[in-house]
Amino acid sequence: MLREYKTLINSISSQKKYCEGIWGGKSNNNYFLGIQLSVAKTPQKFSHAGSENLDKIMSFDLAEVANANCGQINMINVSSFCGPKGLIWGYDIAIAKKEKIDFTFKYKNTIIYDIEPLCNAFEKLLGSLDKPRFPFLPGSHVPCATKNIIAKGKCHLYAAEGIGIPAERGKSACLLMEDIGNIPLEIDDVSGYKKMILNKLVSSIFSIGYNQRVAYNEIFVGIKDIIIDNGEYGCAMAISPYFSIAEDAIPKDDNIFLLDIDSWENIVKNKFLYKNECL
């Protein structure tokens, strides 16, 4: 708990209502990590014979704000490790309920969980585009472990992510593995194909753990997909920002390490930028 407390007090943003990149707070290389999978699409409007860039940017920007509002940030693409000085929102703090899922791939005593509760917890922190809570300060420079795919229809895009939680958090980093790609349109068993993708993702986490001599006792994994029709552009994105947290998001009179995400939400809801209702 001492590690977590030191990380918390050094990971608070300079802003009361806004999160920032990891350089926004006291830092000392301490940070939070948020988890998001998102998909979006937009009708073709701005492409011409010489360029598709504007429509691609439109679909990318829509994916940034499709769930947790990660819009208006200067996203800096970095690698995918959350070390001893990092706290995962929804896992270490404001804890989301874990939901086990069954997988073909088995390895010793590692438990596999659905990643969606972590994504939902991050959305509860930042809020949505129309109902902001503690969003990123517009223009913030935010390092993100991220991968995305942008394509013109017709196609079926996906973004998947897995997180390996090491047995010894004080000595090893959590591993983030992102995968993005296409689900072939001729596939009939889409559910089975997505499960195959997730099994390969879990297997890759174990392989990297073996290569790095790190044992993971928990893995969180999930996937989002979207069908892009003719005349549309779409984006599928896995994005995990490293950030400092808005000061008002930390309850003053409650031990946030003992709160679940719903209790945290109830305590701080009067400090949201948008206060009228919960998501």
Automatic annotation (TrEMBL):
GO terms for molecular function: histidine decarboxylase activity. Keywords: Decarboxylase, Lyase, Pyruvate. SUPFAM superfamilies: Pyruvoyl-dependent histidine and arginine decarboxylases (SSF56271). It holds the Pfam family HDC. Its cofactor is pyruvate. GO terms for biological process: L-histidine metabolic process. The keyword Lyase applies. Signal peptide: none annotated. It comes from the Bacteria. InterPro entries: His_de-COase_proenz, Pyr-dep_his-deCO2ase_N, Pyr-dep_his/arg-deCO2ase, Pyr-dep_his/arg-deCO2ase_sand. Its EC number is 4.1.1.22. It catalyses: L-histidine + H(+) = histamine + CO2. This is histidine decarboxylase. It comes from Candidatus Falkowbacteria bacterium GW2011_GWE1_38_31. The lineage of its organism: Bacteria, Candidatus Falkowiibacteriota.
